[in-house]
Amino acid sequence: MDKLRLVYEQTRRAIWMSHLDTMRTLQRAIKRAGIPIRYSEGFNPHELISILLPLSVGTASLCQIADIRVREDVDIAALPAQLTAVMPEGIRVTDCYENAMKPAELKWMRVNGTWEYDTADTETVAAKCRELFAAPVEVMRKTKRGEGLFTVTEHVRDLTFTAGDGIVTVEGIVSCAEPVVNPELLTAAVRTHLPDCAPDGGRFCRMALYRADGTPYR
Q1: Span 33-55, mean pLDDT?
Q2: Average of pLDDT values for 151-174?
Q3: CATH class, 3-100 region
Q4: d(CA 140, CA 189)
Q5: DSSP secondary structure string, 102-133?
Q6: Pairing between strand 201-211 and 60-69?
Q7: Looking at beta carbons, which pairs linking 95-104 to residues 24 or more positions away fall under 8 Å?
């Protein structure tokens, strides 16, 4: 036993943790739980932990993944409960397993979002959003090389917009590899192309991960 994959939820107050804070939290929890983590070699050894898809601040997730390496065999079945017991509010380890798929096999992510409205008619908003995203939609997107127009509809699928009492629920599948599509780009597209339908608040949650062929990623 060497490489293990942890699956964890990051919700409630934990959505406001930065990527660096989340990494430090995992490191502390692994130490407190007595997990025999493997360290890198060299002058500045560090725990061998890697978060596969760092989470944007303010976004929740039910399917976060962290890969770790251990020095000796551990009880995989007991490990989720051991780690959850020493985690802060909002982080819960739900699974641990060996023989994980390679990061390059990850392609899609299912997301669920809630847009909040104080006064707008949500049935009208949902209908206009369906019409908007039925055609190509461009939005400004920041990358390491700068800012430019990005056709977000080329990298999302199965989008639905459902009206509720003061909310519109947004569900769909977005690319999370080559390119990575932050679901907040959907909100940005509405603000740009349908300013009258721009939400007064809301946030997204990652629900599940998939391979390129649509089968579950694990």
Answers
A1: 91
A2: 97
A3: alpha beta
A4: 8
A5: PGGGEEEEEEEEEEE-SSS-HHHHHHHHHHHH
A6: parallel
A7: 95/6, 95/7, 96/4, 96/5, 96/6, 96/7, 97/4, 97/5, 97/218, 98/1, 98/3, 98/4, 98/5, 100/3, 100/4, 100/5, 100/67, 100/218, 101/211, 101/217, 101/218, 103/52, 104/177
Cβ burial 9-41 (10 Å sphere, 16+ → b, else e): bbeeebbebeeeebbebbeebbeebebebbeee
Six token digits for residue 54 = 């760092």
Give CA–CA dist 48/37, Å, rounded.
Answer: 7
* CB contact set of 44 (below 8 Å; sequence gap of 6+): none
Q: What sign has the CA pseudo-torsion 189, 190, 196, 199?
A: negative
For the domain bounded by 105-211, which CATH number is listed?
A: 3.30.70
Residue 103 CB contacts under 8 Å (≥ 6 apart), including other chains: 52
How does pLDDT run across 27-36, given as a tens digit for each residue?
A: 999 999 999 9
Cα–Cα distance, 101 to 124 (Å, whole number): 42
Residue 204 in tokens: 């997204």
